[in-house]
TrEMBL record, chains A, B:
This is tRNA pseudouridine synthase A. The keyword tRNA processing applies. GO terms for molecular function: RNA binding; tRNA pseudouridine(38-40) synthase activity. InterPro entries: PsdUridine_synth_cat_dom_sf, PsdUridine_synth_TruA, PsdUridine_synth_TruA_a/b_dom, PsdUridine_synth_TruA_C, TruA/RsuA/RluB/E/F_N. SUPFAM superfamilies: Pseudouridine synthase (SSF55120).
C-alpha cells in the first residue's frame, strides 16, 4: 500500500468543521467522498487538525493509504475535479509508511484576522472577526511578547480538550496592521490546546480595547484560570496556515 | 431638501452589478429598497460607477436627496440594519446641493487581484482571477510603467462604452506580489473607459505569461486597436477601491 499526503485549502463557511459527524456536512467527509469516487472504493483520510465549524485552512494536512497507481503529485488534480470549489487540494505527494498527518506534526502556524471598523465588512464577512472599538495595536504588540516561549496554557483552553499536559511552546506571535482595516495575528507553536488561538486572539482584542492591561498577560498565564483570559474569538477569523513536520 | 453622500462596500458575487435592471437583483436596487423602507417613501440613489456583474467595491459612492431629519452621519447605521450583510454603507454624510456622485468625481482607484497558482484558491474564489502559469512579475512591472500618463486608451475599451473621448490619464499603476499567491494590480486615474481596468489587467497577465512583450505596450496603446491588447480579465478580480472628489 502507498501513503499519500494532501495539503488542503478550504473556506470553512459552509462546513460543520473538519471531522465527520452525523447529519452535517464536514470537510473530511467531502474529501473522502471525492477520493472514494475517484478510486472506486471506500477511502478514509486522517487529518492533522480537527478545525471547528467556520474555521478556514490554507494548509490543512491529511493522509490516506491506497494501492492506486496514480502518481503522488497527480492526486491533487484528480481529486479537485470531484470537489466543490470551496475545498481545494493544493498539493499531493507520496510519503513514507511512517508518516502520520497528526503524530508526525512538529508545529503549526495559525492566522487570526480582526476587522476593526465601526461598520462590518461586506467582503471580509465570514472571513474575519468584526470588532467595532478602535484597537490600540501598540498595546497588543506589547501583550503578544508575553505569550512567546514555553508556558502552561491552561488559562487558554476551552473545556472539551483531551490532553494530558497543557504545556505548549509558542515560537512567534506577530501582530500586524494591514490595509483595509485588517489586523492580523499570526502565531506559530509546537502545538495548540482546544480553542487556544481563538482565546489568545480574544485576549489580545481585550488588550487592544483597554479591558486587559498588556502587562497583565504573565499573571493570566500563571493563573491557569480560563476565566482570567479574554473571550474566545469567533471561528470565522481563524485560518490554519501551515503544519510543520 | 438635503443631499446625502454614501460610501458603500459590497461583495459583488451575488448581484447583477450596480445598476437597476429588470428581473435581476442589483446593488443599487437593494440599497434603494433599504433607504425607501427606512424613510417610508420611494427613494432613488445615483451611484458613481456602474460596476458589472461580480465586481466588488470597497468605496463606491452614491447620493440621494431627502427631507428626513436623520443626521447625515447616522444614515449608515440606519440603512445597514436593513441591508443584507454583503452590502455595507461604510460612511454617510450630508453634502452641499451641488455635489454629484458621478459628475463631481475627479478620479478613481481600482484594484485587480490575480491568484497565481497551479490550483485554484478555495478562500479567494469569487474574489480573484485564477491564473495557472507562473507569472513573471518583473515583466509585468516593466509593462505597467507604459500605461502611466495621458493616452488615448481606445485599445483598452470594450464595445458598449458611450463616451465622446477615449483619452484618459493614469496617475499610477502598481503591481505587487502579496502573500498567499496573490498579485495585486492597483491603478489610479482620472477616469476609465468601459472594462478598461479589466483589459489592462488581462494584458498585464499576458505580459506575465510571455504572450505579450512588455515593451510592446506603447505600440498597443498607439494602435487604438482592441484586438491588440490582452483579453478582458474576469469581473471577480476587480475591486472599486476609492473615488476622488
Amino acid at each position: 500500500m502507498r501513503k499519500i499526503k494532501l495539503k488542503i485549502e478550504y473556506d470553512g463557511t459552509n462546513y460543520h468543521g473538519w471531522q465527520i459527524q452525523k447529519n452535517v456536512i464536514t470537510v473530511q467527509e467531502t474529501i473522502e467522498k471525492a477520493i472514494s469516487k475517484l478510486l472506486g472504493n471506500q477511502v478514509g483520510i486522517i487529518g492533522c487538525s480537527r478545525t471547528d465549524v467556520g474555521v478556514h485552512a490554507y494548509g490543512q494536512i491529511a493522509h490516506f493509504v491506497t494501492d492506486s497507481k496514480i502518481p503522488g503529485d497527480k492526486f491533487s488534480y484528480a481529486i479537485n475535479n470531484l470537489l466543490p470549489s470551496d475545498i481545494v487540494i493544493k498539493q499531493s505527494e507520496e510519503v513514507s509508511e511512517d508518516f502520520h498527518s497528526r503524530y508526525s506534526a512538529k508545529g503549526k502556524r495559525y492566522r487570526y484576522l480582526v476587522y476593526n471598523d465601526a461598520h462590518a465588512s461586506a467582503i471580509m464577512k465570514n472571513r474575519s472577526y468584526h470588532v467595532r472599538p478602535k484597537l490600540d495595536i501598540e498595546k497588543m504588540k506589547r501583550a503578544a511578547k508575553y505569550f512567546i516561549g514555553e508556558h502552561d496554557f491552561a488559562a487558554f483552553q476551552s473545556t472539551g480538550g483531551q490532553v494530558l499536559s497543557t504545556v505548549r511552546e509558542i515560537f512567534s506571535l506577530e501582530i500586524e496592521k494591514k490595509e483595509d482595516n485588517i489586523i492580523s495575528i499570526e502565531v506559530t507553536g509546537n502545538g495548540f490546546l482546544y480553542n487556544m488561538v481563538r482565546i489568545i486572539a480574544g485576549t489580545l482584542v481585550y488588550v487592544g480595547m483597554g479591558r486587559i492591561d498588556a502587562d497583565e498577560i504573565p499573571l493570566i498565564i500563571d493563573s491557569l484560570d480560563r476565566t482570567r483570559a479574554g473571550k474566545t474569538a469567533p471561528a470565522e477569523g481563524l485560518y490554519l496556515m501551515e503544519i510543520f513536520y
